[in-house]
Fold Ring-cleaving dioxygenase.
Amino acid sequence: MKLKGIHHVSAITANAKKNYEFYTKILGMRLVKKSINQDDPSVYHLFYADEVGHPGTDLTFFEIPNAGNTYPGNHSISGTSLRVPNDISLDYWINRFDKFKVSHDGITTENGRKVIHFRDHENQRLTIVSDENNHGVSGGKPWKHSNASLTHGIIGLGPVKLTVPDSEPTIAILTEVLSFKQVGSYPSPIDGQEDILVFSTGEGGTGAEIHLETRNDLPREKPGRGSVHHVAFRVDNDEELEKWRERLMEARLPNSGVVDRYYFKALYFREPNRILFELSTDGPGFATDEDTEHLGESLALPPFFEDQREEIEANLKPLETKRSHS
């Protein structure tokens, strides 16, 4: 059994409206699902992705209105990257970030790829990464109505960075349980720190990597707005997810068991550095309950929440996401 790559990354925002404006109007991603946090139906769960929400293109946010600031540190998912087609695309994004006054660090090279490290309005740690030399998992396709360039638009999730004080236990889970292999390393940008290790799964490439940073000089991260809640990895189908559950049991890793999220099935567990991992099926997908042309335009509730719709809608602050179809 091999995981197929990154499925999605879920982060925290304190303001759904401002979040929606940044990720759709500046980054040009498509809101493919406006739903609720199934563990707390009083708040939004927003899903941004490519044209139809292909697995591996999906960055999601839980709205937690009273979330405080994030204090970055250890035991964390410390970086999320977004793939763009090639090196020339980075020039487009530099100009766009300057136009919209988005904080960024310019174009640099990391692990042999051109990247731009940048932050959203809540200091979410993000990276644009070039797919120029990608020979692994293919990216998605920008939405035809995107606010950003279709030629240079975001085509999916790239490598996810983890920061831990002791890498060995995490390496053991990645390689002995989850099918990742170490495929390289690159120097830490912080003087005196160990190299950042690169792990890959499935077809490999930009959409299938974990970058593991060891930092014994940092406190534990205090999460809040702008922090990442979990990273999910792609599993082919329900049958395979059940086999992964059995493998976690054999490895004596406490886990959630299979959870039906309606748009996919999920399985959650924490690795030894307490980072939350999820295994998610590729299907059935976001078009299960909405027409592809109208994804994300109205509040979508899984059937098991439909009888609470009136109460749920009354508790949510209105968020206008309907597109004009003229």
Remarks:
- The chain is about 15% helix and 35% strand.
- The chain has a mean pLDDT of 97.
